[in-house]
Every structure is written in structure tokens, then in C-alpha cells.
Amino acid sequence: MTTTHTYSNATGSYDVLELQKLLENEPCEEVLIADIKGVSKSRRSGFSKHRLLKTDTTFPVILDFDNNLIDGRHRIIKLMAEESLAVLAKRATWEQLQSVKIN
């Protein structure tokens, strides 16, 4: 399996593009940005100011069942800069994550 967008944690690595497809028809919920874990501006983990400027904040972020950020870091950071308190999110269950696990 070849992928260009992954999320990794202590339990493994996951294909974010496949997870986005899987969650496509799932409902969104509004989540307080302060409650989201794992937001970082580290360049080592792919943060880019250029990409931040082009970020579409209307697209929902993806969180796991424990509010860990899987996808959408640039969206959250842009919303924080705009002083927004909440973001639209889709939530992945443990089972959904396991179905897109790479290793």
C-alpha cells in the first residue's frame, strides 16, 4: 500500500487519505480547540507557513475517540490565529482507525 499522508502514534501508523474517504459521510461536530490534543507548529512534523496561508478552515479536522488530532493541524492553527474557539471535526472510532492501519 502506498500512501502520502499518514498519522502515527504509539499504536501504529494510519493512512489519513483512506480515513478521510471512510469518514466522508459521517456527521461533523463542533469541538473546542482548547480540548484538542497534539497541535504543534514544529517544522520537523511538516508545519509550513506558506501552507497555513492557503488553508481552508471550512473543511473539518479529524480527531480520534480521545480528542487526539489526526488531520487538520494547519486548519486549527489558522483558526487559533483568527481567535476562533471551536472547529468542525469528524471523529474516528478505534475500529475505523484499525481499518486504515498501515503497520
Blueprint of the fold:
Blueprint: E1 6-9, E2 12-15, H1 16-23, E3 29-32, H2 49-54, E4 61-63, E5 69-71, H3 73-81, E6 86-91, H4 94-99
Parallel strand pairs: 4-6
Antiparallel strand pairs: 1-2, 3-6, 4-5
Low-confidence stretches: none
Assigned CATH architecture of the domain at 27-92 = Alpha-Beta Complex
CATH superfamily of the domain at 27-92: Conserved hypothetical protein from pyrococcus furiosus pfu- 392566-001, ParB domain
CATH topology (level 3) name of the domain at 27-92: Conserved hypothetical protein from pyrococcus furiosus pfu- 392566-001, ParB domain
Please give the order of strands in the largest beta sheet: 3-6-4-5
The geometry reads as globular
Largest sheet properties: 4 strands, mixed
Strand share of the residues? Answer: 15-25%
Q: What do the pLDDT scores average to?
A: 88
